[in-house]
Fold this protein.
Amino acid sequence: VTSPGIDLAQTVRWKDGIVHKLTGGVAALLKKNGVHVVPGWAHIIDGKTVEVRRQGANADAEPQRISCEHLLLAPGSLAVALPSMPFGGRVISSTEALAPEVLQQRLVVVGAGYIGLALGTAYRKLGAEVSVVEALDRVLPAYDEELTKPVLASLRRQGAQLLLGHTVQGLNAKGDAVRVRNATGEESELPADQVLVAIGRRPRTQGWGFEGLMLDMKGPAVQIDDQCRTSMRNVWAIGDLTGEPMLAHRAMAQGEMVAEIIAGRPRHFVPAAIPAVCFTDPEVVVVGQTPPQAAQAGLDCIHALFPFAANGRAMTLESTDGFVRVVARRDNHLIVGWQAVGQGVSELSVAFSHSIEMGARLEDVAGTIHAHPTLGEAVQEAALRALGHALHI
């Protein structure tokens, strides 16, 4: 076939269309279930009262006061900015990176965490020259090195420039390059048409009267119990406002639980594990404890991995880098963790979560027939290998 090209405007419209279908579906569900939605900017008066400034055609109307028995706080989070390089102009956060109007030729990504690498990889595939700057000496520093090696190799194959062990000093005088400093103190400049700062996120606690509630805090996050109750009676908090892990599926599970508690059902938020996925290329999945985390917790564990190089489905996907790894207690073989890196492994997170939540042992997974040819076979093979009798390696 002829060499393809990217229509960026159409690509963004396609993405926005999917988002609109999803959010529109939620809006329809709210309406169907009789939920009164008030669009506007909320300001907390107290634990029982919220004042809403209306938007759109009703922007000039008097603020609306809403009284409640229960107040649920779910404002989300904001991208963290660098003091030396605040957002604005050519310096953007992940929010702006998800809706580009034009593709800038030279993108500098500050931070090699999952957000920076996922977006940096996407921009590289779209054709931009991508440079990634990370203060630590490796990518995805929150994950163990064995998991991140295939991601690092992939970034290099794609032609991304990696400056590990470098710190950002700010933009140069002209504003067209990022000043970086290596471990020995030497400074250099990275030409940049755009700079994506992806060094983390923080709970959104300003601009809506939150400080007036005087809630107990745990660092920058609201302190909650295992029912998402705050220190104020009938004031609840879920999602990013309550700190790590800042994951959408965690927030949804918390919100569902709070609704059930308010409706009178006995519930507690005590998941055995919450899956975390890095949508890099290849993908990374972590559920439960890694071998270092298990050792740090004082558990005597065994662990084993099965490489995708020996998996037929991975071969057909032309993505044999990566593996599935299982971590289990040595004494009773109870599974305490799963990790995987490879193309499409995010879909394996379901099997990982199920096995831990249901208290599976290595024998349970090893004795379960897995369909062939699938990536899921590597899950069974990892369990078999941990037991000492893998079939295909």
Observations:
- The chain is about 25% helix and 25% strand.
- The mean pLDDT is 95.
- The first strand starts at residue 40 and ends at 46.
- The radius of gyration is 24 Å.
